[in-house]
Write a structure and sequence with these properties.
heterodimer; A: alpha/beta; four-stranded antiparallel beta sheet; B: alpha/beta; Rossmann fold; globular
Amino acid sequence: MRPILSIKGLSVEYLSPRGRVKAVRNVNLEVYKGEILFLVGESGAGKSTLGLTLLKLLPEGIAKVVGGEVIYHRDDGGNLNILKLRKGRLRRFRWKEVAMVFQGAMNSLNPIMKIKDQMYDVIKDHGVRLSKREAYKKIEELLAMVRLDAKRVLKSYPHQLSGGMKQRVMIAMSLLLDPKLLILDEPTTALDVLTQKNIMNVLKDIRDKLHLTMIFITHDLSLAAELADRIAIMYAGSIVEVGSVEQIFYRPKHPYTHGLLKSVPKLTSEIGKLESIPGFPPDMINLPPGCKFHPRCVFRRDICMEKEPFLQKVEENHYTACWRWRDIFGEE
Amino acid sequence: MGKSENTPLLELRGVYKAYKVGGFLRKVKVNAIEDIWLSLGEADIISLVGESGCGKTTTGKVAVGLLKPDKGEVLYKGKNIWEMTKEEFKEFRRNVQMMHQDPYSSLNPMLTVYKTLSAPLFRHGLASDREEAVERIARLLRLVGLTPPEEYMEKYPHQLSGGERQRVAFARTLSLNPKLIVADEPVSMIDVSLRASILNLMLDMREKFKVSYVYITHDLITARYFSRKHLLMIMYLGSIVETGQTDRIIKEPLHPYTQVLLSALPEPDPRITRSKKLIALRSLDVPSLLRMPTGCKFHPRCPFFKKGLCDVKRPTLIEVESGRRVACHLYGS
């Protein structure tokens, strides 16, 4: 498997009146071509900050990359260090190589422009050499791919569309310049179950038809269960476990992942009383020493309070940042 | 005490509530809820489930007396709450509490936990001085798992995490020893790893103090967990479409809307969720409340739509088996 993106030792901090918020801490991760990788974590885990960093979209002056790099591997074999890109190249990079859809992105549509004109502008403004006719053909194809009635949608203003339709317009729009990697940050979070299901199906279609690589950021394990090839679990700014969807759901090797899975209720299977993870997430300004999960971990030993664990190999493709995974869960 | 053993704690009888919407030239009346029936006794739980705009929150507000219904009755221990004396109404409001979704905005940022929790105690005469209040609050904080309580009392909301805030909000709800709590999406803004603990805490209070709950949520999975052997009510565009014991509905949903909803719900298990078969809707668009469909409100989207019946006649809620009611022409009505 060839990586499309390599994140190496990445750390990001925010400046706050109380001190430095260590939002992303020493993240190492490869994203492989054609896969759907889920970044799963709870609020404050650093998943959205990581997503923004991948496109160099961090708010300037407040957030700072304090270490590491993000390398994008182009189709032609060239490598781009994203964090070093300057304005002009960054602009092209953002739509043509990597595109992003945010939670509530539908609210960023221009309310006084028809969808048709907004979508055409994206193509025109990025200097793509397409005739007007070709451009509209492309727009219609993409709207069909996200299961929208192009005829109706194109002549609509945003307020004439439902939230789910607008979010699908945003997804179609993000695909206009044929990006190779799509980053989705909680794209279905504010939407109803049925609308959410529809968007998940649209993303499946896109994967099957365009063979795009996707990074899907969410707090919702159910969505990962539905669509992920691989999952990276984040806690307190770091990746604590990464593996295939099967490895993470059925053979977790980190106490946090394990606890998370046991704390979510299921619909069809029989369940007893849910167990929640004791305690609360850490203060990102005053992080505990050693493993950041140790204050909530029932398996902790002295070493966990002293030294922060790094990602260790469990089996092929499966890594966990826990000193005691063998004792707790056993080998595969 | 109630009139008899069988008098429910809270009853909604055929409740309607409409809102006026639109500009100043053309105000339109929109029915937020129509013909809602609900009854619950001591230590009962009912989950109200539906998507945004289905009227579940309005139903909750009517139940706690925050909104006056246009039609129908709200009875507390057999008494219409809108015909109560001032004293009776005050007692009703103390016994029936609402718990909100957002622990970030439901707590006053200027007040310490002590101030937040002591105010209702003093107001309702449950504490006469600081010492008494501190003692009671310490007990409450321990009850909701915030220990050591002395430390939490002096904290402001911004010094607490979302999970801690929701526990403070819950402690405030409990402080007046309510008989019934209407909880509107109490865990939807809480981190996944803490949700179970809040739900378990609420269930513990039911065990300990026989508190009853109306649990309002869009999330069928937590509703199933919270009200398994109790009642579930599925709402769609302001009406009840199906009601009955939670586990039975989840196992065998009768109303097409419930069936579609269950088939679309992702589950935290890859094998289960990937082998689910989606029941497709005829239309994805939720009709506007301003243009409510004729006949059955679900007919424009229903996969089992029968022309000439579903678009003409509104189905009534009928009992199909003991304790299970459905509003759908597939089952008579």
